[in-house]
Amino acid sequence: MLGKNLHLSQFVHDQTINNINVLGPLGDVHVDTLLLSWVCMGGILAGAAAVTPTLTADGPGGKPQALFEMVYSFLDDLAHGQIGEHYRKFFPLIAAIFIFVLIGNFIGVGPWKALENLPGWFKLPDGEPFELASPTTDFNVTAALAAIALITYLGSGVWKHGARFVKMFFCNPIEWLDFVVRPSTLALRLMVVITADELMRGAFLLMMPILLPAGIMAFELFIGVIQAFVFALLTSIYIGLTVAEHH
């Protein structure tokens, strides 16, 4: 969870050569976040690869195709409704953000607390067992996603309006707040909400470890869907604002 990541320096015993720290800033890399993010991406690609051969244009297809079509229709309506006629250019990004955030949120929902008692489980420098959590509880992940949304937001304005957008943006100091407010709200909202969910589950596991946490985990899944939707929705709204004709 927040502040309890596994740093690369914890896996390298000899970090110095001639009293020089060879890892440098790399020693602070969050290994668990990287691995879980790769698991998210690998799972998405593996799921797509598994379902693609079964897709058919004749008839409704199987249950996996129905699920994929439902998600596609939902995201298509979301992007179209907020961006307008140019939404096709941005649809892959909106869909990728939604699916990655959704799977990332879901990864942290599980009885991972039980793993902490296994022999050989990773220990933090303070001696506490490492807690497996969603990659979206790491600000590095949510900030990177927000940066992608911000770059796309600015790039779409330049693409649609050219020099007029650049002039409007740099001549209006209020617009400069976009560099801070929009990515900050995107990143902090997602990180704080998912972290709060995981803290709540940990508290209920300590109080009643048998039955009650199952309901909490179901609630976490619901919150995970909502947060993925909100992130994709706000990204679509920001892009829609820049491609609107009134600019």
Describe this structure in words.
The structure is a single chain. The protein is an all-alpha fold and 247 residues long. It has one domain. Helices cover 62% and strands 2% of the residues. It is built from 7 helices and 2 strands. The protein has helices at residues 31-51, 63-83, 87-107, 139-161, 163-171, 181-207, 212-243, and strands spanning 16-17, 20-21. The protein has a two-stranded antiparallel sheet. β1 and β2 (20-21) form a beta hairpin. The longest helix has 32 residues, at 212-243. The radius of gyration is 21 Å and the shape is globular. It starts with 15 loop residues before the first strand and ends with a helix.
What is the general shape? globular
Q: Would you identify the regions where 5 or more consecutive residues have pLDDT less than 50?
A: none
Straight-line N-to-C gap:
42 Å
Order of strands in the sheet with most strands: 1-2
Count structural domains: 1
Biggest beta sheet attributes: 2 strands, antiparallel
Task: Spell the H/E element sequence.
Answer: EEHHHHHHH
Give the tally of β-strands: 2
Q: Percent of residues in helical segments?
A: 55-70%
Mean pLDDT: 82
Please, how many helices?
7
